[in-house]
Write a structure and sequence with these properties.
The protein is of the alpha/beta class. It has a single domain, classed as Alpha/Beta hydrolase fold, catalytic domain (Rossmann fold). 32% of the residues lie in helices and 20% in strands. The protein contains nine helices and eight strands. Strands 1-2-4-3-5-6-7-8 form an eight-stranded mixed beta sheet, with helices on both faces. Strand 5, helix 4 and strand 6 form a beta-alpha-beta unit. Helix 5 packs antiparallel against helix 6. The radius of gyration is 18 Å and the shape is globular. This is Alpha/beta hydrolase family protein.
C-alpha cells in the first residue's frame, strides 16, 4: 500500500485545515507528481485516516499509477465540532472551496505536486466542488470529474428532495430572497471561464440532486466551447451508484479521464467506450 498521512495547513484567512495525502507508490527522487483532489460530499462529512479506497475514490489505484491523492476536510466538514461545521452556512462554496485550493497550493509548495497536473473529483457536494473547480477555479485544475453534483443552486431547491435542509442547514435563504447569492454560488454562472476538460457523471434516477443539474452544466460548458466536456448517465442509479457494473464503469472512466489529461496526450477526449477487460498479467 502507498504511504498515507494527515497533513495540516493554513488557509488564506488563517483557518487551520486538515486533510489526507496518499503518496504515489513509486516516486523518482524529488520529481513532482500529478495530483487528484478528491472532495467529500455533505459538506457534513469528513475523511478519516483509515481505509479510504473506494469506487469513487480509488486512491491506491491512483498511487500505483504514479498519482498522489489529496482528500481535504475543508471548513463545514464534520469531526471538529458544530461551530466548524457551520462555517459555510449561508455562503456555500466560497471559503469551503478556497480551502481546497489552498491545500493544493500547500502541496505544490512542499515540492511534491506538479501545479499543471492537478485534477479534481467528488460526488454530491464534492461534485459541486468539482464543477466549481472546472469553472470558477478553472485555471487551477487540468481535469475535472464531477458526480451527481450541483450546478445551479436555485433550481436545486425546487427540484431536489431536501428543500428544507437546503434552507435550514446550508443556505439560510430562499432563492427569491437573495437571487444574486444563489446565482453567484452556481458553477453554471462561471462556465465561460472554463478551460478544464470535464467529465460529468450522474444517476438518471437521482432524487437528491436531479440529473437536470448535470444536463445544465453539460450544456453551459458545451455552449461555452472552450474545453472538452462529456456527460455519462447511469440508468436506474440514484444519488451514488449501487450496482457493481455501474461502479466499475465509474472507476474506469475516472481513471481514464485523469490519466488522459494529467499524464497523457490531452486534447480531444478519450474514446467514449471503455475497455472492461481485466489487464493481462
Amino acid at each position: 500500500m502507498a504511504k498515507q498521512e494527515v497533513i495540516r495547513y493554513k488557509t488564506r484567512d488563517g483557518l487551520d485545515i486538515e486533510g489526507l495525502l496518499v503518496h504515489p507508490l513509486d516516486r523518482k527522487g524529488n520529481e513532482r507528481v500529478p495530483l487528484v483532489t478528491i472532495v467529500h460530499g455533505g459538506p457534513e462529512a469528513h475523511f478519516s485516516n483509515g481505509w479510504i479506497n473506494g469506487y469513487s475514490q480509488p486512491v491506491h489505484v491512483l498511487a500505483a499509477q504514479g498519482f498522489a491523492s489529496f482528500l481535504p476536510n475543508y471548513r463545514s466538514s464534520t469531526g471538529r465540532g458544530v461551530a466548524f461545521s457551520k462555517l459555510g452556512f449561508g455562503k456555500p462554496g466560497m471559503g469551503e472551496f478556497d480551502d481546497i485550493v489552498d491545500g493544493v497550493d500547500h502541496l505544490i509548495a512542499t515540492g511534491l505536486v506538479d501545479k499543471v497536473k492537478v485534477g479534481i473529483t467528488g460526488g454530491s457536494y464534492g461534485g459541486y466542488a468539482s464543477a466549481w473547480g472546472a469553472t470558477y477555479y478553472s485555471e487551477r485544475f487540468a481535469a475535472a470529474v464531477t458526480f451527481v453534483g450541483i450546478s445551479d443552486q436555485a433550481s436545486l431547491v425546487t427540484t431536489g428532495d431536501i428543500p428544507w435542509e437546503q434552507y435550514l442547514v446550508h443556505m439560510g435563504k430562499w432563492p427569491w430572497e437573495d437571487p444574486e447569492m444563489f446565482r453567484q454560488q452556481s458553477p453554471i454562472t462561471h462556465a465561460q471561464k472554463s478551460r478544464t476538460p470535464t467529465l460529468i457523471l450522474h444517476g438518471e434516477a437521482d432524487p437528491r440532486v436531479p440529473p437536470m443539474q448535470s444536463y445544465m452544466l453539460y450544456r453551459y460548458l458545451k455552449l461555452a466551447g472552450k474545453a472538452p466536456v462529456r456527460l455519462v448517465l447511469y440508468p436506474g442509479e440514484g444519488h451514488g451508484n449501487q450496482r457493481a457494473a455501474s461502479r466499475y464503469d465509474y472507476s474506469l472512466r475516472l481513471m481514464q479521464w485523469m490519466k488522459h489529461y494529467l499524464t497523457g496526450p490531452g486534447g480531444e477526449p478519450p474514446a467514449y467506450q471503455v475497455d472492461y477487460a481485466l489487464p493481462k498479467k
